[in-house]
Amino acid sequence: MSFRSIAPPGGVLRAALLAASLLLLCFAIGAEAWAHNVAEGDKGYIQESSGILFWPFVYLGAKHMVTGYDHLLFLFGVIFFLYRMKDIGLYVTLFAIGHSTTMLFGVLTGISANAYIIDAIIGLSVVYKALDNLGAYQRWFGVQPNTKAATLIFGFFHGFGLATKILEFEIANEGLIPNLLAFNIGVEIGQLLALGTILILMGFWRRTPSFMRHAFAVNTILMTAGFVLVGYQLAGLAAA
């Protein structure tokens, strides 16, 4: 069913405000370690390690993906209206290509950007996808953006954001490329695990009448979460 047929039910604003409050509460209690950042313990391990450490970096990559709620919110939005495994595989592959490309490029070249700005753009990727699911671009501008291109482009930003964080850790050159490849393998494993769980849950939900009835509310909450992520990063930029 097309996303253009979903309608705004009552209580959406209240649900969106609740989602925003929960996200702000997470930030307030120090959930930053779960976000696009790398946790402090992992940061210390990366900084102190040298040589080829294949399995530890596979683990770190998988952990980064399954605990990175900005990645998961974006991918949740991407697959929300995808029903065929062929389509899901295509979009997830595009995101993985973008993420891997800029992560490797950024670390190997030493090119980085302000982490707050990159993470704010990543928050905007969540907003973009939620609005796309709501059919906003067709309603407002009469056009439908190329969803495949958008997924690839935002994959570039997600990967570049991680590269920026890794560069801050001054990772050792010894074993750098094998470790980065291992990290990427871990990211893909984590992505498959996270998406597998999401798809199983959504598979049950899609069989119920509540799926389309609540589609508008869920994507509104997703959009709100994206705006909260943007605001959080911009506040950090202003305070830095």
TrEMBL record:
Span-the-membrane segments of this chain are 103-128, 149-167, 179-204, 216-235
Q: Sorted alphabetically, which InterPro entries does this protein's record hold? A: Put_HupE_UreJ
Keywords linked to the UniProt accession: Membrane, Transmembrane, Transmembrane helix
Top-rank lineage group of the source organism = Bacteria
Q: Which residues form a coiled coil?
A: none
Determine if Membrane is one of this entry's keywords: yes
Its name, as the record gives it, is HupE/UreJ family protein
